[in-house]
Protein backbone atom coordinates (compact mmCIF):
# COMPACT_ATOMS: atom_id res chain seq x y z
CA UNK A 1 0.00 0.00 0.00
CA UNK A 2 2.84 2.39 0.86
CA UNK A 3 4.52 1.72 -2.47
CA UNK A 4 1.27 2.34 -4.28
CA UNK A 5 0.91 5.70 -2.53
CA UNK A 6 4.45 6.64 -3.52
CA UNK A 7 3.82 5.51 -7.09
CA UNK A 8 0.56 7.48 -7.23
CA UNK A 9 2.28 10.64 -5.98
CA UNK A 10 5.10 10.19 -8.45
CA UNK A 11 2.75 9.61 -11.40
CA UNK A 12 0.71 12.68 -10.41
CA UNK A 13 3.91 14.73 -10.36
CA UNK A 14 4.88 13.30 -13.75
CA UNK A 15 1.48 14.19 -15.24
CA UNK A 16 1.85 17.75 -13.92
CA UNK A 17 5.27 18.11 -15.54
CA UNK A 18 4.01 16.65 -18.82
CA UNK A 19 1.04 19.00 -18.79
CA UNK A 20 3.28 22.01 -18.19
CA UNK A 21 5.58 20.90 -21.01
CA UNK A 22 2.89 20.18 -23.58
CA UNK A 23 -0.07 22.37 -22.63
CA UNK A 24 1.37 25.07 -20.38
CA UNK A 25 2.27 28.56 -21.54
CA UNK A 26 5.31 28.80 -23.80
CA UNK A 27 8.52 30.09 -22.27
CA UNK A 28 9.72 33.56 -23.05
CA UNK A 29 11.86 33.52 -26.18
CA UNK A 30 15.59 33.56 -25.80
CA UNK A 31 17.86 36.21 -27.17
CA UNK A 32 17.95 39.98 -26.89
CA UNK A 33 14.93 40.46 -29.14
CA UNK A 34 12.67 38.82 -26.59
CA UNK A 35 14.36 40.05 -23.45
CA UNK A 36 11.82 42.33 -21.83
CA UNK A 37 14.08 42.91 -18.83
CA UNK A 38 16.61 44.99 -20.70
CA UNK A 39 15.59 48.53 -21.55
CA UNK A 40 15.56 49.24 -25.25
CA UNK A 41 14.85 52.20 -27.44
CA UNK A 42 11.17 52.74 -28.15
CA UNK A 43 9.70 52.11 -31.55
CA UNK A 44 9.84 55.78 -32.49
CA UNK A 45 12.29 58.28 -31.05
CA UNK A 46 11.37 61.82 -30.23
CA UNK A 47 12.06 64.28 -33.05
CA UNK A 48 12.61 67.04 -30.48
CA UNK A 49 15.66 65.73 -28.66
CA UNK A 50 18.07 62.80 -28.98
CA UNK A 51 18.09 60.44 -26.02
CA UNK A 52 20.71 61.07 -23.40
CA UNK A 53 23.06 58.24 -22.46
CA UNK A 54 21.60 56.02 -19.76
CA UNK A 55 18.21 57.77 -19.96
CA UNK A 56 15.11 56.38 -21.62
CA UNK A 57 14.15 57.83 -24.96
CA UNK A 58 11.18 60.12 -25.44
CA UNK A 59 7.92 58.59 -26.64
CA UNK A 60 6.82 59.51 -30.13
CA UNK A 61 4.97 62.79 -30.41
CA UNK A 62 1.24 62.09 -30.89
CA UNK A 63 -0.47 63.52 -33.91
CA UNK A 64 -2.60 66.50 -32.82
CA UNK A 65 -6.18 66.92 -34.07
CA UNK A 66 -6.98 69.22 -36.97
CA UNK A 67 -6.23 72.76 -35.84
CA UNK A 68 -9.10 74.95 -34.84
CA UNK A 69 -8.48 78.24 -33.15
CA UNK A 70 -4.74 78.67 -32.44
CA UNK A 71 -3.75 78.44 -28.77
CA UNK A 72 -0.85 79.97 -26.98
CA UNK A 73 0.96 77.99 -24.31
CA UNK A 74 1.16 80.01 -21.12
CA UNK A 75 2.69 77.32 -18.87
CA UNK A 76 4.95 74.77 -20.51
CA UNK A 77 8.35 74.22 -22.05
CA UNK A 78 9.79 74.73 -25.50
CA UNK A 79 11.59 71.40 -25.90
CA UNK A 80 11.11 67.84 -24.79
CA UNK A 81 13.38 66.53 -22.08
CA UNK A 82 13.74 63.74 -19.57
CA UNK A 83 13.61 64.04 -15.80
CA UNK A 84 15.39 61.30 -13.86
CA UNK A 85 14.44 60.30 -10.32
CA UNK A 86 16.79 57.93 -8.53
CA UNK A 87 16.88 56.27 -5.14
CA UNK A 88 18.81 53.35 -3.71
CA UNK A 89 16.21 50.93 -5.13
CA UNK A 90 14.74 52.60 -8.24
CA UNK A 91 15.80 54.67 -11.22
CA UNK A 92 12.75 56.28 -12.87
CA UNK A 93 12.63 58.44 -16.01
CA UNK A 94 9.74 60.78 -16.81
CA UNK A 95 9.27 62.79 -19.98
CA UNK A 96 7.77 66.26 -19.98
CA UNK A 97 5.87 65.36 -23.16
CA UNK A 98 2.54 64.48 -21.63
CA UNK A 99 4.21 64.15 -18.19
CA UNK A 100 4.46 60.37 -18.51
CA UNK A 101 6.65 57.61 -17.14
CA UNK A 102 8.93 56.01 -19.74
CA UNK A 103 11.28 53.92 -17.60
CA UNK A 104 11.21 52.29 -14.16
CA UNK A 105 14.28 50.22 -13.35
CA UNK A 106 14.78 48.13 -10.21
CA UNK A 107 18.42 48.53 -9.21
CA UNK A 108 18.40 45.60 -6.78
CA UNK A 109 17.25 43.06 -9.39
CA UNK A 110 19.23 42.04 -12.47
CA UNK A 111 17.85 40.97 -15.83
CA UNK A 112 19.25 38.20 -18.01
CA UNK A 113 21.83 40.58 -19.47
CA UNK A 114 23.09 41.69 -16.07
CA UNK A 115 21.51 45.16 -16.08
CA UNK A 116 18.69 46.39 -13.85
CA UNK A 117 15.21 44.99 -14.48
CA UNK A 118 13.03 47.30 -16.60
CA UNK A 119 9.33 47.18 -15.69
CA UNK A 120 8.05 49.57 -18.38
CA UNK A 121 8.08 47.58 -21.64
CA UNK A 122 9.39 49.64 -24.53
CA UNK A 123 9.20 46.99 -27.26
CA UNK A 124 5.59 47.77 -28.16
CA UNK A 125 3.83 49.63 -30.93
CA UNK A 126 4.31 53.42 -30.88
CA UNK A 127 0.56 54.04 -30.70
CA UNK A 128 0.36 52.46 -27.23
CA UNK A 129 0.03 54.66 -24.17
CA UNK A 130 2.77 55.13 -21.61
CA UNK A 131 2.11 54.93 -17.86
CA UNK A 132 0.20 57.87 -16.31
CA UNK A 133 -1.24 59.03 -19.63
CA UNK A 134 -4.38 61.12 -19.09
CA UNK A 135 -7.58 60.59 -21.08
CA UNK A 136 -10.62 62.88 -21.11
CA UNK A 137 -13.63 60.63 -21.81
CA UNK A 138 -15.50 61.71 -24.94
CA UNK A 139 -13.02 64.50 -25.78
CA UNK A 140 -10.40 63.22 -28.20
CA UNK A 141 -9.11 66.72 -29.02
CA UNK A 142 -8.28 67.58 -25.41
CA UNK A 143 -6.84 64.10 -24.86
CA UNK A 144 -4.50 64.48 -27.84
CA UNK A 145 -3.48 67.97 -26.75
CA UNK A 146 -2.55 66.78 -23.27
CA UNK A 147 -0.67 63.85 -24.74
CA UNK A 148 1.42 66.11 -27.01
CA UNK A 149 1.84 69.00 -24.57
CA UNK A 150 5.29 69.81 -23.22
CA UNK A 151 4.62 70.18 -19.51
CA UNK A 152 6.73 72.38 -17.30
CA UNK A 153 8.65 70.23 -14.78
CA UNK A 154 9.39 71.49 -11.30
CA UNK A 155 12.95 70.18 -11.38
CA UNK A 156 15.50 68.74 -13.76
CA UNK A 157 16.03 65.66 -11.59
CA UNK A 158 15.58 64.19 -8.13
CA UNK A 159 18.01 62.25 -5.98
CA UNK A 160 16.01 60.62 -3.22
CA UNK A 161 18.00 60.34 -0.01
CA UNK A 162 15.25 59.39 2.43
CA UNK A 163 13.09 62.50 2.51
CA UNK A 164 9.73 62.68 0.76
CA UNK A 165 10.04 64.49 -2.57
CA UNK A 166 7.63 65.52 -5.32
CA UNK A 167 7.88 66.01 -9.05
CA UNK A 168 5.25 68.42 -10.42
CA UNK A 169 4.25 68.87 -14.07
CA UNK A 170 2.06 71.82 -15.16
CA UNK A 171 0.53 72.93 -18.42
CA UNK A 172 -1.81 75.77 -19.42
CA UNK A 173 -2.82 77.43 -22.67
CA UNK A 174 -4.98 80.27 -23.92
CA UNK A 175 -8.02 78.02 -24.49
CA UNK A 176 -8.55 77.83 -20.74
CA UNK A 177 -7.12 74.30 -20.52
CA UNK A 178 -4.99 73.72 -17.45
CA UNK A 179 -3.50 70.42 -16.24
CA UNK A 180 -1.33 69.40 -13.35
CA UNK A 181 0.30 66.09 -12.42
CA UNK A 182 2.03 65.50 -9.12
CA UNK A 183 4.25 62.48 -8.36
CA UNK A 184 5.23 62.09 -4.71
CA UNK A 185 7.89 59.54 -3.80
CA UNK A 186 7.56 57.93 -0.38
CA UNK A 187 11.12 56.94 0.43
CA UNK A 188 10.71 58.09 4.03
CA UNK A 189 8.04 55.45 4.69
CA UNK A 190 10.31 52.61 3.59
CA UNK A 191 8.31 52.22 0.39
CA UNK A 192 10.74 52.89 -2.47
CA UNK A 193 8.41 51.31 -5.01
CA UNK A 194 5.36 53.50 -4.26
CA UNK A 195 4.38 56.76 -5.95
CA UNK A 196 1.44 58.89 -4.81
CA UNK A 197 -0.19 60.30 -7.93
CA UNK A 198 -2.66 63.16 -8.34
CA UNK A 199 -3.91 64.79 -11.55
CA UNK A 200 -6.34 67.62 -12.23
CA UNK A 201 -7.56 68.92 -15.57
CA UNK A 202 -9.76 72.02 -15.79
CA UNK A 203 -11.19 74.14 -18.57
CA UNK A 204 -12.02 77.69 -17.64
CA UNK A 205 -12.00 76.68 -14.00
CA UNK A 206 -14.36 73.69 -14.41
CA UNK A 207 -12.95 70.26 -13.55
CA UNK A 208 -12.99 67.63 -16.30
CA UNK A 209 -13.36 63.90 -15.68
CA UNK A 210 -10.04 62.12 -16.01
CA UNK A 211 -9.06 58.55 -16.82
CA UNK A 212 -5.54 57.24 -16.32
CA UNK A 213 -4.00 54.95 -18.95
CA UNK A 214 -1.17 52.73 -17.88
CA UNK A 215 -0.32 51.15 -21.20
CA UNK A 216 1.31 47.74 -21.73
CA UNK A 217 2.67 46.05 -18.63
CA UNK A 218 4.72 44.37 -17.37
CA UNK A 219 8.47 43.89 -17.91
CA UNK A 220 10.75 41.60 -15.94
CA UNK A 221 9.85 38.33 -17.69
CA UNK A 222 12.87 36.05 -17.78
CA UNK A 223 14.01 34.13 -20.83
CA UNK A 224 15.31 31.22 -18.73
CA UNK A 225 12.43 29.16 -17.36
CA UNK A 226 11.95 25.71 -15.86
CA UNK A 227 9.44 23.19 -17.12
CA UNK A 228 8.92 22.14 -13.52
CA UNK A 229 7.60 25.60 -12.70
CA UNK A 230 4.91 27.59 -14.46
CA UNK A 231 6.31 30.98 -15.36
CA UNK A 232 3.47 33.39 -14.70
CA UNK A 233 3.28 35.68 -17.72
CA UNK A 234 1.69 39.16 -17.54
CA UNK A 235 -1.99 39.04 -16.58
CA UNK A 236 -4.55 41.25 -14.89
CA UNK A 237 -5.00 41.14 -11.14
CA UNK A 238 -7.54 42.86 -8.86
CA UNK A 239 -8.77 42.39 -5.32
CA UNK A 240 -11.89 43.77 -3.71
CA UNK A 241 -15.68 43.81 -4.04
CA UNK A 242 -16.69 43.85 -7.68
CA UNK A 243 -20.07 45.14 -8.81
CA UNK A 244 -22.21 42.59 -10.66
CA UNK A 245 -25.38 44.28 -11.88
CA UNK A 246 -26.44 46.24 -8.81
CA UNK A 247 -24.99 43.89 -6.21
CA UNK A 248 -21.53 43.92 -4.67
CA UNK A 249 -19.88 40.53 -4.57
CA UNK A 250 -17.84 39.08 -1.75
CA UNK A 251 -14.27 40.31 -1.45
CA UNK A 252 -12.14 38.13 -3.69
CA UNK A 253 -9.06 38.18 -5.89
CA UNK A 254 -9.43 37.83 -9.66
CA UNK A 255 -6.70 37.06 -12.19
CA UNK A 256 -8.02 37.64 -15.74
CA UNK A 257 -5.65 36.14 -18.30
CA UNK A 258 -5.09 37.71 -21.74
CA UNK A 259 -7.19 34.93 -23.28
CA UNK A 260 -10.08 35.75 -20.90
CA UNK A 261 -10.31 39.43 -21.86
CA UNK A 262 -12.36 38.74 -24.97
CA UNK A 263 -15.15 37.47 -22.73
CA UNK A 264 -14.83 40.12 -20.03
CA UNK A 265 -12.39 43.00 -19.77
CA UNK A 266 -14.04 45.54 -17.41
CA UNK A 267 -14.45 45.39 -13.63
CA UNK A 268 -16.04 47.95 -11.36
CA UNK A 269 -16.49 48.26 -7.63
CA UNK A 270 -14.58 48.95 -4.43
CA UNK A 271 -11.18 47.57 -5.38
CA UNK A 272 -8.33 47.53 -2.88
CA UNK A 273 -5.80 47.14 -5.69
CA UNK A 274 -5.82 46.53 -9.43
CA UNK A 275 -3.23 46.26 -12.15
CA UNK A 276 -0.99 43.76 -13.94
CA UNK A 277 1.48 41.27 -12.51
CA UNK A 278 3.78 38.52 -13.69
CA UNK A 279 5.83 35.86 -11.92
CA UNK A 280 7.95 38.21 -9.82
CA UNK A 281 6.73 41.80 -10.29
CA UNK A 282 3.59 43.90 -9.95
CA UNK A 283 2.26 47.22 -11.27
CA UNK A 284 -0.89 48.16 -9.40
CA UNK A 285 -2.94 51.14 -8.26
CA UNK A 286 -4.58 51.11 -4.83
CA UNK A 287 -7.90 53.02 -5.00
CA UNK A 288 -9.02 51.70 -1.61
CA UNK A 289 -12.62 52.51 -0.74
CA UNK A 290 -13.10 54.81 -3.72
CA UNK A 291 -15.41 53.64 -6.47
CA UNK A 292 -13.20 52.66 -9.38
CA UNK A 293 -13.29 50.88 -12.70
CA UNK A 294 -10.54 49.11 -14.61
CA UNK A 295 -10.50 48.08 -18.27
CA UNK A 296 -7.94 45.49 -19.38
CA UNK A 297 -6.85 44.80 -22.94
CA UNK A 298 -4.28 42.40 -24.42
CA UNK A 299 -1.36 43.88 -26.33
CA UNK A 300 0.72 41.92 -28.82
CA UNK A 301 4.13 42.80 -30.17
CA UNK A 302 6.26 41.35 -32.94
CA UNK A 303 9.34 41.35 -30.68
CA UNK A 304 7.62 39.79 -27.65
CA UNK A 305 6.01 36.38 -28.24
CA UNK A 306 3.81 36.44 -25.16
CA UNK A 307 0.94 38.91 -24.80
CA UNK A 308 1.23 41.93 -22.56
CA UNK A 309 -1.75 43.42 -20.76
CA UNK A 310 -2.62 47.13 -20.65
CA UNK A 311 -5.17 48.71 -18.34
CA UNK A 312 -7.09 51.97 -18.04
CA UNK A 313 -8.23 53.24 -14.67
CA UNK A 314 -11.26 55.38 -13.92
CA UNK A 315 -10.99 56.80 -10.41
CA UNK A 316 -10.99 60.20 -8.73
CA UNK A 317 -7.33 61.26 -8.71
CA UNK A 318 -7.89 64.98 -8.33
CA UNK A 319 -7.86 65.54 -4.57
CA UNK A 320 -6.88 62.37 -2.74
CA UNK A 321 -3.52 60.87 -3.84
CA UNK A 322 -3.71 57.53 -5.61
CA UNK A 323 -0.92 55.18 -4.41
CA UNK A 324 0.71 53.24 -7.25
CA UNK A 325 3.02 50.30 -6.59
CA UNK A 326 5.60 49.28 -9.18
CA UNK A 327 8.05 46.74 -7.82
CA UNK A 328 8.83 43.17 -6.73
CA UNK A 329 6.31 40.77 -5.23
CA UNK A 330 8.28 40.58 -2.02
CA UNK A 331 5.99 39.51 0.83
CA UNK A 332 7.34 42.01 3.35
CA UNK A 333 7.47 44.87 0.86
CA UNK A 334 3.88 44.29 -0.27
CA UNK A 335 2.68 43.98 3.31
CA UNK A 336 4.29 47.30 4.23
CA UNK A 337 2.38 49.03 1.41
CA UNK A 338 -1.00 47.44 2.15
CA UNK A 339 -1.92 44.31 4.15
CA UNK A 340 -4.00 42.90 1.30
CA UNK A 341 -1.42 43.55 -1.39
CA UNK A 342 0.35 40.30 -0.44
CA UNK A 343 -2.55 38.45 -2.06
CA UNK A 344 -1.01 39.32 -5.42
CA UNK A 345 1.48 36.50 -4.77
CA UNK A 346 -0.22 33.34 -6.01
CA UNK A 347 0.84 30.76 -3.44
CA UNK A 348 -2.10 28.53 -4.38
CA UNK A 349 -4.54 26.69 -2.14
CA UNK A 350 -1.83 25.84 0.40
CA UNK A 351 -1.06 29.47 1.19
CA UNK A 352 -1.96 28.82 4.86
CA UNK A 353 1.17 26.62 4.99
CA UNK A 354 3.31 28.52 2.47
CA UNK A 355 3.11 31.86 4.29
CA UNK A 356 4.56 30.56 7.61
CA UNK A 357 7.27 28.71 5.68
CA UNK A 358 8.05 31.91 3.77
CA UNK A 359 8.33 33.95 6.95
CA UNK A 360 10.54 31.30 8.53
CA UNK A 361 12.81 31.22 5.49
CA UNK A 362 13.30 35.00 5.62
CA UNK A 363 13.85 34.84 9.39
CA UNK A 364 16.61 32.25 8.94
CA UNK A 365 18.09 34.35 6.13
CA UNK A 366 18.41 37.21 8.60
CA UNK A 367 20.93 35.09 10.53
CA UNK A 368 22.72 33.23 7.74
CA UNK A 369 22.68 35.86 4.99
CA UNK A 370 22.51 33.20 2.26
CA UNK A 371 19.30 31.76 0.85
CA UNK A 372 20.97 28.47 -0.14
CA UNK A 373 22.01 27.72 3.45
CA UNK A 374 18.66 29.08 4.64
CA UNK A 375 16.85 26.50 2.47
CA UNK A 376 19.02 23.75 3.96
CA UNK A 377 18.36 24.96 7.51
CA UNK A 378 14.60 25.22 6.93
CA UNK A 379 14.56 21.75 5.34
CA UNK A 380 16.34 20.42 8.43
CA UNK A 381 13.72 21.99 10.71
CA UNK A 382 10.89 20.51 8.61
CA UNK A 383 12.41 17.02 8.67
CA UNK A 384 12.99 17.18 12.41
CA UNK A 385 9.35 18.21 12.89
CA UNK A 386 8.01 15.33 10.78
CA UNK A 387 10.47 12.74 12.14
CA UNK A 388 7.84 11.11 14.42
CA UNK A 389 5.49 10.69 11.47
CA UNK A 390 8.21 9.21 9.28
CA UNK A 391 9.33 6.90 12.08
CA UNK A 392 5.81 5.62 12.57
CA UNK A 393 5.41 5.14 8.82
CA UNK A 394 8.65 3.17 8.46
CA UNK A 395 7.86 1.04 11.52
CA UNK A 396 4.48 0.17 10.08
CA UNK A 397 6.07 -0.69 6.72
CA UNK A 398 8.45 -3.08 8.50
CA UNK A 399 5.53 -4.86 10.16
CA UNK A 400 3.72 -5.07 6.84
CA UNK A 401 6.82 -6.57 5.24
CA UNK A 402 7.04 -9.18 8.05
CA UNK A 403 3.47 -10.45 7.58
CA UNK A 404 3.60 -10.20 3.80
CA UNK A 405 4.36 -13.95 3.27
CA UNK A 406 1.40 -14.98 5.42
CA UNK A 407 -0.89 -12.52 3.67
CA UNK A 408 0.20 -13.82 0.26
CA UNK A 409 -0.52 -17.37 1.42
CA UNK A 410 -4.05 -16.36 2.38
CA UNK A 411 -4.54 -14.63 -0.95
CA UNK A 412 -3.21 -17.68 -2.80
CA UNK A 413 -5.87 -19.93 -1.23
CA UNK A 414 -8.60 -17.66 -2.63
CA UNK A 415 -6.90 -16.77 -5.89
CA UNK A 416 -9.33 -18.75 -8.02
CA UNK A 417 -12.43 -16.93 -6.75
CA UNK A 418 -14.08 -14.03 -8.50
CA UNK A 419 -14.32 -10.66 -6.81
CA UNK A 420 -18.09 -11.08 -6.47
CA UNK A 421 -17.81 -14.50 -4.82
CA UNK A 422 -19.14 -14.40 -1.22
CA UNK A 423 -16.17 -16.50 -0.16
CA UNK A 424 -13.96 -13.47 -0.77
CA UNK A 425 -15.41 -12.02 2.41
CA UNK A 426 -13.83 -14.87 4.34
CA UNK A 427 -10.44 -13.97 2.83
CA UNK A 428 -10.84 -10.39 4.06
CA UNK A 429 -11.71 -11.67 7.50
CA UNK A 430 -8.58 -13.81 7.59
CA UNK A 431 -6.41 -10.88 6.49
CA UNK A 432 -7.88 -8.63 9.17
CA UNK A 433 -7.36 -11.37 11.76
CA UNK A 434 -3.72 -11.60 10.63
CA UNK A 435 -3.34 -7.83 11.06
CA UNK A 436 -4.94 -7.97 14.51
CA UNK A 437 -2.76 -10.90 15.60
CA UNK A 438 0.49 -9.11 14.74
CA UNK A 439 -0.61 -5.58 15.64
CA UNK A 440 -0.42 -4.21 12.09
CA UNK A 441 -2.47 -1.22 10.97
CA UNK A 442 -2.42 -0.84 7.15
CA UNK A 443 -3.33 2.86 7.34
CA UNK A 444 -0.53 3.68 9.77
CA UNK A 445 2.03 3.38 6.99
CA UNK A 446 0.17 5.54 4.46
CA UNK A 447 -1.34 8.20 6.70
CA UNK A 448 1.88 9.68 8.15
CA UNK A 449 3.33 9.83 4.64
CA UNK A 450 0.25 11.58 3.30
CA UNK A 451 0.30 14.08 6.17
CA UNK A 452 3.79 15.20 5.10
CA UNK A 453 2.78 15.73 1.46
CA UNK A 454 1.09 19.16 2.00
CA UNK A 455 4.31 20.41 3.62
CA UNK A 456 6.40 19.18 0.70
CA UNK A 457 4.03 20.67 -1.88
CA UNK A 458 3.86 23.98 0.01
CA UNK A 459 7.66 24.20 0.14
CA UNK A 460 7.81 23.46 -3.59
CA UNK A 461 5.32 26.28 -4.21
CA UNK A 462 7.30 28.63 -2.01
CA UNK A 463 10.57 28.02 -3.84
CA UNK A 464 8.78 28.40 -7.17
CA UNK A 465 7.23 31.81 -6.42
CA UNK A 466 9.58 33.56 -3.98
CA UNK A 467 11.17 36.60 -5.62
CA UNK A 468 13.85 36.51 -2.92
CA UNK A 469 15.47 33.56 -4.73
CA UNK A 470 15.61 35.44 -8.03
CA UNK A 471 19.30 36.09 -8.60
CA UNK A 472 20.22 34.87 -5.10
CA UNK A 473 23.60 33.06 -5.11
CA UNK A 474 24.45 29.98 -3.07
CA UNK A 475 28.08 29.01 -3.44
CA UNK A 476 30.61 28.12 -6.12
CA UNK A 477 29.00 27.50 -9.46
CA UNK A 478 25.41 28.14 -8.25
CA UNK A 479 24.96 31.88 -8.72
CA UNK A 480 21.16 31.97 -9.00
CA UNK A 481 18.90 29.69 -6.95
CA UNK A 482 15.91 30.38 -9.23
CA UNK A 483 17.50 28.79 -12.33
CA UNK A 484 18.94 25.35 -13.03
CA UNK A 485 22.29 24.06 -11.82
CA UNK A 486 24.64 24.84 -14.75
CA UNK A 487 26.87 21.85 -13.99
CA UNK A 488 24.01 19.43 -13.04
CA UNK A 489 25.87 18.43 -9.87
CA UNK A 490 22.97 18.78 -7.42
CA UNK A 491 20.46 16.79 -9.57
CA UNK A 492 22.91 13.88 -9.81
CA UNK A 493 23.49 13.94 -6.04
CA UNK A 494 19.74 14.06 -5.51
CA UNK A 495 19.24 10.96 -7.71
CA UNK A 496 21.99 9.06 -5.86
CA UNK A 497 20.41 9.92 -2.52
CA UNK A 498 17.05 8.61 -3.74
CA UNK A 499 18.64 5.28 -4.72
CA UNK A 500 20.29 4.92 -1.30
CA UNK A 501 17.09 5.86 0.49
CA UNK A 502 15.09 3.24 -1.43
CA UNK A 503 17.64 0.54 -0.61
CA UNK A 504 17.33 1.32 3.10
CA UNK A 505 13.53 1.45 3.12
CA UNK A 506 11.74 -1.84 3.88
CA UNK A 507 9.59 -3.01 1.03
CA UNK A 508 6.54 -5.24 0.97
CA UNK A 509 6.33 -5.12 -2.82
CA UNK A 510 7.08 -7.99 -5.18
CA UNK A 511 10.31 -7.98 -7.23
CA UNK A 512 8.59 -6.53 -10.31
CA UNK A 513 7.21 -3.59 -8.37
CA UNK A 514 10.59 -3.04 -6.73
CA UNK A 515 12.24 -2.79 -10.15
CA UNK A 516 9.64 -0.26 -11.24
CA UNK A 517 10.21 1.76 -8.10
CA UNK A 518 13.95 1.78 -8.78
CA UNK A 519 13.23 3.64 -12.02
CA UNK A 520 11.88 6.59 -10.05
CA UNK A 521 15.31 8.02 -9.11
CA UNK A 522 16.35 7.93 -12.75
CA UNK A 523 13.22 9.68 -13.96
CA UNK A 524 13.29 12.24 -11.16
CA UNK A 525 16.96 13.00 -11.85
CA UNK A 526 16.25 13.65 -15.52
CA UNK A 527 13.32 15.93 -14.68
CA UNK A 528 15.27 17.86 -12.06
CA UNK A 529 18.16 18.59 -14.41
CA UNK A 530 16.28 21.73 -15.47
CA UNK A 531 14.62 22.50 -12.13
CA UNK A 532 15.53 25.62 -10.12
CA UNK A 533 18.66 24.82 -8.14
CA UNK A 534 17.00 25.99 -4.92
CA UNK A 535 14.32 23.32 -5.36
CA UNK A 536 16.93 20.62 -6.07
CA UNK A 537 18.92 21.61 -2.97
CA UNK A 538 15.76 21.29 -0.89
CA UNK A 539 14.94 17.84 -2.32
CA UNK A 540 18.52 16.58 -1.89
CA UNK A 541 18.68 17.84 1.70
CA UNK A 542 15.35 16.21 2.47
CA UNK A 543 16.64 12.89 1.08
CA UNK A 544 19.78 13.10 3.21
CA UNK A 545 17.70 13.62 6.34
CA UNK A 546 15.42 10.79 5.22
CA UNK A 547 18.43 8.48 4.97
CA UNK A 548 19.59 9.47 8.45
CA UNK A 549 16.10 8.95 9.82
CA UNK A 550 15.94 5.51 8.16
CA UNK A 551 19.23 4.47 9.74
CA UNK A 552 18.02 5.59 13.17
CA UNK A 553 14.70 3.77 12.75
CA UNK A 554 16.44 0.57 11.64
CA UNK A 555 18.67 0.63 14.73
CA UNK A 556 15.78 1.30 17.06
CA UNK A 557 13.62 -1.42 15.53
CA UNK A 558 16.44 -3.98 15.25
CA UNK A 559 16.89 -6.46 12.41
CA UNK A 560 13.83 -7.30 10.37
CA UNK A 561 12.09 -10.54 11.36
CA UNK A 562 11.09 -12.98 8.65
CA UNK A 563 8.15 -15.30 8.88
CA UNK A 564 8.25 -18.58 6.96
CA UNK A 565 4.93 -19.93 5.78
CA UNK A 566 4.73 -23.74 5.65
CA UNK A 567 3.06 -25.37 2.69
CA UNK A 568 -0.51 -26.53 3.22
CA UNK A 569 0.41 -30.24 3.05
CA UNK A 570 3.05 -29.82 5.75
CA UNK A 571 0.62 -27.98 8.01
CA UNK A 572 -1.94 -30.76 7.56
CA UNK A 573 0.62 -33.46 8.38
CA UNK A 574 1.71 -31.69 11.54
CA UNK A 575 -1.88 -31.50 12.70
CA UNK A 576 -2.37 -35.35 12.26
CA UNK A 577 -1.25 -37.62 15.20
CA UNK A 578 1.54 -39.98 14.34
CA UNK A 579 0.38 -43.57 13.58
CA UNK A 580 1.44 -46.35 15.95
CA UNK A 581 3.71 -48.93 14.38
CA UNK A 582 2.94 -52.44 15.63
CA UNK A 583 4.81 -55.51 14.57
CA UNK A 584 2.31 -58.14 13.63
CA UNK A 585 3.17 -61.83 12.86
CA UNK A 586 1.72 -63.10 9.65
CA UNK A 587 -1.21 -65.43 10.27
CA UNK A 588 -2.00 -68.31 7.99
CA UNK A 589 -5.69 -69.15 7.73
CA UNK A 590 -5.96 -72.99 7.92
CA UNK A 591 -9.62 -73.10 8.69
CA UNK A 592 -8.93 -73.81 12.37
CA UNK A 593 -10.00 -71.56 15.16
CA UNK A 594 -7.32 -69.18 16.14
CA UNK A 595 -5.75 -69.33 19.49
CA UNK A 596 -6.17 -66.64 22.13
CA UNK A 597 -2.74 -65.29 21.44
CA UNK A 598 -3.49 -65.05 17.80
CA UNK A 599 -6.78 -63.36 18.48
CA UNK A 600 -5.06 -60.84 20.73
CA UNK A 601 -2.52 -60.19 18.08
CA UNK A 602 -5.24 -59.58 15.51
CA UNK A 603 -7.04 -57.20 17.80
CA UNK A 604 -3.88 -55.17 18.41
CA UNK A 605 -3.20 -55.12 14.69
CA UNK A 606 -6.74 -53.99 13.98
CA UNK A 607 -6.56 -51.22 16.54
CA UNK A 608 -3.21 -50.13 15.15
CA UNK A 609 -4.62 -50.05 11.64
CA UNK A 610 -7.58 -48.00 12.70
CA UNK A 611 -5.35 -45.53 14.52
CA UNK A 612 -3.16 -45.33 11.45
CA UNK A 613 -6.19 -44.62 9.28
CA UNK A 614 -7.33 -41.99 11.72
According to CATH, the fold-level topology of the domain at 75-222 and 233-346 is Beta-galactosidase, Chain A, domain 5
Number of helical runs? 13
Please identify the oligomeric state: single chain
At the first level of CATH, what is the class of the domain at 75-222 and 233-346?
Answer: Mainly Beta
Radius of gyration: 38 Å
**Structural class of the helices, strands and pairings?**
alpha+beta
Helix content: 25-40%
Q: Indicate the low-confidence ranges by residue numbers.
A: 19-65, 568-614
The major beta sheet can be summarized as: 16 strands, antiparallel
Give the overall average pLDDT: 77
Record field, number of beta strands: 21
User: Span between N and C termini?
Assistant: 44 Å
CATH architectural label of the domain at 75-222 and 233-346? Distorted Sandwich
Which helices and strands, and how do they pair?
Elements: H1 2-22, E1 73-75, E2 82-86, E3 90-95, E4 100-110, E5 116-118, E6 133-135, H2 140-148, E7 152-153, E8 157-159, E9 165-173, E10 177-185, E11 194-203, E12 206-207, E13 211-217, E14 235-244, E15 247-248, E16 252-254, E17 266-277, E18 281-285, E19 291-301, E20 304-314, E21 322-328, H3 331-337, H4 351-368, H5 371-385, H6 387-413, H7 423-438, H8 443-465, H9 489-504, H10 511-528, H11 533-557, H12 568-575, H13 596-613
Amino acid sequence: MERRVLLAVFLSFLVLVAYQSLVGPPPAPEGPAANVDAPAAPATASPDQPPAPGVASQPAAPVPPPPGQPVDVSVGEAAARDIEVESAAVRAVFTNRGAKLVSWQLLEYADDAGGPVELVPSEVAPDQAWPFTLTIPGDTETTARLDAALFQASTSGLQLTGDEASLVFEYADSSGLRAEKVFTFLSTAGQPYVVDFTATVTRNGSALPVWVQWGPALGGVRAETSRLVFQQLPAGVLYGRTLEGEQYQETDILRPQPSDLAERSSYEGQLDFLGVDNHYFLAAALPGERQSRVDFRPVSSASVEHDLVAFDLSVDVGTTPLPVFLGPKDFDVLGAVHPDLVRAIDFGFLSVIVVPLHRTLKWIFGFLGNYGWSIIALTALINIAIFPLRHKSVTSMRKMAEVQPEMKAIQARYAGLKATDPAKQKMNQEVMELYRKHGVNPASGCLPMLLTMPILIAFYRLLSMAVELRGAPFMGWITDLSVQDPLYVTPVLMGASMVLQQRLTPSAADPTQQKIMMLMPVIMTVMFLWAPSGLVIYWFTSNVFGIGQQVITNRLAGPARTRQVRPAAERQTRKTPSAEVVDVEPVVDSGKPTSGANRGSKKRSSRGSKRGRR
